[in-house]
Amino acid sequence: MTHIVAYLCVLGSFLNGFDQCTVPESEFQLEGDYLIGGLFDIHQVNSSFYHHRPEAIDCSSAPFILSSYRRFQLMRFSVEEINNSTKLLPNVSLGYEIFDHCTDSVNFPGPLNLIAVNGLIQPLEEPHKNLSKVIAVVGTYTSPQARAVAPLFMMNLIPMVSYGAASSIFSRRQIYPSFMRTVHASKDVIEVIFSILTEFNWKWVAFLYVDDSYGIDGLQLFLKKIKDTDICLAYNKALDHYSDYKAIFKQINAQNVNVIIVFAPEWTVEELMKSVKQINVTNKVWIAGDAWSLNKKIRDQIQGIKSIGTVLGVAEPNMTIPGFREFIYSFKAQTHCENAKQQKFCNQICHCSSLTAEEIIDADPSFSFPVYSAVYSIAHALHNILQCGAYGCKANIKVYPHMVILCLLSLNLTLFKNCVQVPTSVCSTECDVGYKKTQYGIHKCCFNCTICPNGTYNNITEDPYSCINCNNTQWSEEGSTSCSLRVVEYTPFTDIWAIGIMVGAFILVFISLALSVLFALNYNTPVVKSAGGPMCFLILGCLSLSSLSVFFYFGEPTVAFCILRYLPFLLFFTVCLACFVVRSFQIVCIFKIAAQIPKLHSWWMKYHGQWLFITVAFVTQAIFLLINYIYAPPSSKMDIYWNPQKIILGCDIDFKAALISLVLPLLFCFLCFVFSYMGKDLPKNYNEAKAITFCLLLLILTWIIFATGSILYQGKYMQPLQSLAVLSSLYSFLLWYFFPKCYIIIFQPQKNTHHYFQNLIQSYTKTISQ
């Protein structure tokens, strides 16, 4: 504290030492009942002020900032407009004390003068005693300037209403209790910049910022905002008077960055744009912070750069303030520097008498409305403190700066927005729906897009970097964003094909029953005996029992259904084939083997070899089926591979295990062919070779067609196709073996006599003997 007091006293000793310059008194100073301080950077020192001893800088020798001079005049206009009003502060006049605040480091005489009383500063004085006549201060413009001088005003709780300082540090009330601003904080500007990036899907950006507290604060806020988002900061760089812009843009181009955020004051951006023109940087998207977005000088620079790209800006409202134009024209008409009175204090000189009214009016209007708002906010606070009404304000109220703080109103201003074509700035173009991202490099914004294959999907909200597998009951096409339930298919009993095939099975049973009746009525006739006699009834019965399998090919497959699909057919059809083997063998045995091997024939007849053979075949096949179903029973299955959109319900068969149950049927088919061939020259009515051979050929052709179809097609109609093959196998023997005999019995009874058969046998015997 001792060091601070000493420093203030040293600086205070210079308060009366700067009276060598003259300016019009009305420009920087105005007497009034209440004073408002003003700090405007009418001039701007571009480099650090180097000195060997404590001394104030002469701002008038620094480069002139026309836009700041316009804001300075706008404060003067606002005070004059309020003084001319009879509503806001009637019978009360406002005055001002304004200083050219051209640097943020050594420009303290102006702020010290505002808090001084009679040229003296006494920091240890009792609060509210001998305070300055200044009730509030409008300024400063930049955050570094405000940060440097704000503690001087915070000390006595003098309201400091800034029209441009946006750094987030000033939101800390415990440090800056009397600091207020009529502009949005940098946090709000960053929010809008972030909204622009997300609106246009720009995710790969560069951030250039001024190398001071304002710029660094903006960078930190931006990094905090894009954390845990898809936006990547590809490049960032602090800018100062020594920046190598060529190297900066070389790096930006190397990173393939198309969107550049520039968070810096106008004088820094002017140098930047000069370099942009020299280096020939083209086709970029520039996002301007509110510190330079409406600057006309920079706009003229940009228009002079060929193919600079797109410039978007975040700006305070650019509002036309009625009466300001007339005020400037009136002021320029009355002001002549050569008639100016002696100035009272340093940094209250402009050297700008050569400016025309048009130049001032047409200067950059940025932050003009915040200046206007700041003055009016202070005036409204004073209006409330003095309890002003239609007849005036109370004169007996002592106004202290801290009272103004309590009454100041914060203004919520709408940001000004500009719209263009929509450029893009992404490291990688966003993937289409149904594509997954495959990141390459260190940035999540850089990725390749891979379409998700069939059976998978991509959910961008769940995981944009993966193709998620659908489960077995779902399906998806290539490039899907979700899975759909598969359609479960099987052939129900109500299906037209199922009804037709089951009707065919019933007809087969009916025909078998009818044939059995017909053969029973003609049991002792030669035709029935040549067909097998009592064996015919066994064959017809086994054919009927085999047809039971057909009914279990329909409905939802279960284990029981899967077993019954094959068991009746494989068991009873094997018996049928055994009967045909026996029948073929008996005919050959009677006419050929009996004479050559009489003992075999005698044994066969004595022990009823045909029935023994059929019984052994039945028992053996039953054992084979039992072994098959014990070690590899059929089971229901879901076919999810044939059609990706459907689940085909069927039966799962272990074909290797099932081969054992096919041994006898295949063997009997072979024996039938052999015996049929051996009996090809037997008497016509006893020759069953052609009929059996034709039935076997139909059987083989049926299952060849089925096997071909099962290779080409695996849909739900595979089950009806297999049941149709079973039914066709049964019909082949029913029609082509029994129907010719029925025809003779019904329509050619003359051929169904013993005499007719004896003649055929005698004719065969004569042929053999010859």
TrEMBL record:
Cellular component annotations (GO), alphabetically ordered: plasma membrane
Keyword Calcium on entry: no
Domain G-protein coupled receptors family 3 profile as annotated: residue spans: 497-753
Cleaved signal peptide residues: 1-17
Membrane spanning stretches: 496-523, 535-554, 566-591, 611-632, 658-679, 691-713, 719-739
Primary location recorded for the protein, binned into one broad class: membrane
Membrane topology according to the record: Multi-pass membrane protein
InterPro entries in the record: ANF_lig-bd_rcpt (IPR001828), GPCR_3 (IPR000337), GPCR_3_9-Cys_dom (IPR011500), GPCR_3_9-Cys_sf (IPR038550), GPCR_3_C (IPR017978), GPCR_3_Ca_sens_rcpt-rel (IPR000068), GPCR_3_CS (IPR017979), Peripla_BP_I (IPR028082)
Family, as annotated: Belongs to the G-protein coupled receptor 3 family. TAS1R subfamily.
Name under which the protein is recorded: G-protein coupled receptors family 3 profile domain-containing protein
Biological source species: Oreochromis niloticus (Nile tilapia)
Record gene name: LOC100696444
